[in-house]
Amino acid sequence: MATKPRRRPRVTGESWAAVGTSRGAAGGKASLKRSHALGRSWRSPLAWGVFALILAVPAVYFLWAYPTGEGMEVLASQHETLQHKFYPVPCSQDYGNHKQFTGCTPLKCGRAVTDAVITHQEAKRMLRIAEAGLSLGGSDGGASILDLHSGALSMGKKFVNIYGYYGEEMKEILTEEDFQLYRNVKRRIQQEIATTFDLDANSLYLTKPTFFSRMNSSEAKTAHDEYWHPHIDKVTYGSFDYTSLLYLSDYSRDFGGGRFIFIDEKTNSTLEPRLGRLSFFTSGSENLHRVEKVSWGTRYAITISFTCNPDHSIMDPTWL
Ligand SMILES: O=C(O)CCC(=O)C(=O)O
Ligand SMILES: [Fe+2]
To answer: Which of 125, 157, 126, 152 is nearest to 141 (CA)?
Structure first.
């Protein structure tokens, strides 16, 4: 014979324990009283104090145990306009493993950031060049580059040479005025680096690669898309002695994530990109760094770097 299905106990505001242990009407009332008493105790200041302590202990431990946690120091926030900030760091031994060039090989090392060298207008023009050039191709993954010197442009999972691929057509996309702007910007960055590191600007030579970059949150498809790994530019690019980055979009407005991070022993320092912001630093292991993964939007920048070794110098990009 089919038994009448029993009604499930109605779950009220009481705890699961009160429902589970109720045996008969009397037992049910007693446990309900206990659970109401429990409910009241959560409103007492003592209970809140205990609760706060439970949360605070792991938080304090986390901050104490992981002083190298990212975002400990913000070198440059997107919201501020910086005249010139310089952070000295002791030079690494790296330069000793390379040919020395008196008056250029870093003796003074560090990192600098300024919003006062490249104007907003110039940065916007550079952004338009980056957008136009990179729109001709683009990686399937999250990082695309356009190398002005070699002409390499990310395309799918590979690169094409824009100068060969598009030929004369390219002159309409990347004009001689665009190259003039690049050369002008490059010259002022070179001068700024020389002044900051007490060098003669003529002892610094433009080196390769010099490229526009575009980053977004697409999943990486090849190793070239994995821009977020910690690295040392002198190791990655060989010839670099002084790296400069000119940012062409704004952190938190145009994209999320994508902050530049210097990785140090005790604290990491973040630099938030901003249109027209110039950052430069000595390229050795004293300036180990990485870029955070971009979480939304598109981030544009251009890398313009210098070597002390004339054998590694390249000519300014031009159509002429
Ligand atoms: O775009 C950046 O902020 C830095 C990129 C970088 O570290 C590199 O290209 O070596
Ligand atoms: Fe780098």
So the answer is: 157
